[in-house]
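User: Need the bound-state model for 2-acetamido-2-deoxy-beta-D-glucopyranose:
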Amino acid sequence: MQEYYASCHTNGSLTLLFLPISRHSQNILHSNHHAASLSVSSALPAARSPRVSLIGNVTVYTNTTVVPNRNAIQSCYLARHPDARWWLPDDDDAAHIAYWARLDPESVYFVGGFGDKHFIGYIPLEIYQGAPASAEVSLQGSLVEQY
Ligand SMILES: *[C@@H]1O[C@H](CO)[C@@H](O)[C@H](O)[C@H]1NC(C)=O
Ligand SMILES: *[C@@H]1O[C@H](CO)[C@@H](O)[C@H](O)[C@H]1NC(C)=O
Ligand SMILES: *[C@@H]1O[C@H](CO)[C@@H](O)[C@H](O)[C@H]1NC(C)=O
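Assistant: Bound-state model below.
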């Protein structure tokens, strides 16, 4: 399923706007550790294009008054997805309940493209978490539950 995300943490954890009404949010809530995997690929996924799966779990801030760095998270997320202003947490006019959430990757599986030419395999978490931010690129994420 397609999902918006934004990279708003220096350690590569991703910010999600968590809508309990969605199927994948339900799946995450129903798994004991709120497990999820998010695949990030180029706008047109293809066998020769790099993509990465971030496998970890999701912390959902259901108490909207105690979200760490809430203002910074919201500004960062809206800079990436301006249209999300219509479904922010604590907006009485929003169509659906929404919460800020964070996906903390625990393993990172990278497929660079074709195996004879590109790296395919797990990337050590500390390398992922320590990587500097890169220039904005056109990416899309799809989120699936993982047990
Ligand atoms: C990543 O950083 C955020 C704060 O920006 C922190 O809450 C979270 O626990 C960190 N995740 C990991 C896996 O260290
Ligand atoms: C994430 O999952 C690990 C085990 O897979 C678990 O130890 C940890 O408590 C989970 N974190 C959250 C926030 O559920
Ligand atoms: C949310 O957190 C605040 C501050 O810690 C607390 O006063 C309040 O009772 C919490 N609300 C709920 C519904 O747990």
